[in-house]
Specification:
The protein is mainly alpha-helical. Helix content is 41%, strand content 6%. It has two helices and two strands, in the order ββαα. α1 crosses α2. The longest helix has 24 residues. The chain is elongated and about 70 Å long. The two termini are 27 Å apart. The N terminus is likely disordered.
């Protein structure tokens, strides 16, 4: 049995056919993963200013947030997670049409 990747309109009769996500779904999934990963990466390397504001005692925003570095790290992390999600979605291991996740026949 082969693992074949194709679109829903592909009716070539190959054994083991599984539909993969289209380009729009892939972009939406990547944006969701990127946004979630950004909030996971933002706290890394953050140090509050040493001297708080004398009037309020508030320390405020970090002195050096390194946002460009965090955006690049987020993009790479999101790409790796997206690739894993794409492989899982496109594989026969996660299917709602057959297997243990499928609805019972009526």
């Amino acid at each position: 049995m082969c693992i074949c990747f194709g679109s829903a309109g592909d009716r070539s009769g190959r054994i083991g056919y599984h539909a993969s996500m289209n380009w729009f779904t892939g972009i939406v999934l990547y944006v969701l993963i990127w946004w979630t990963a950004l909030f996971a990466v933002l706290p890394f390397g953050v140090r509050a200013p040493l001297h708080p504001d004398p009037a309020t005692g508030w320390r405020g925003a970090p002195e050096h947030p390194h946002l460009l570095r965090k955006v690049v790290a987020t993009t790479i992390l999101a790409a790796v997670i997206w690739l894993g999600a794409w492989l899982l979605i496109s594989s026969p291991y996660l299917s709602f049409r057959h297997g243990w996740l499928a609805l019972p026949d009526r």
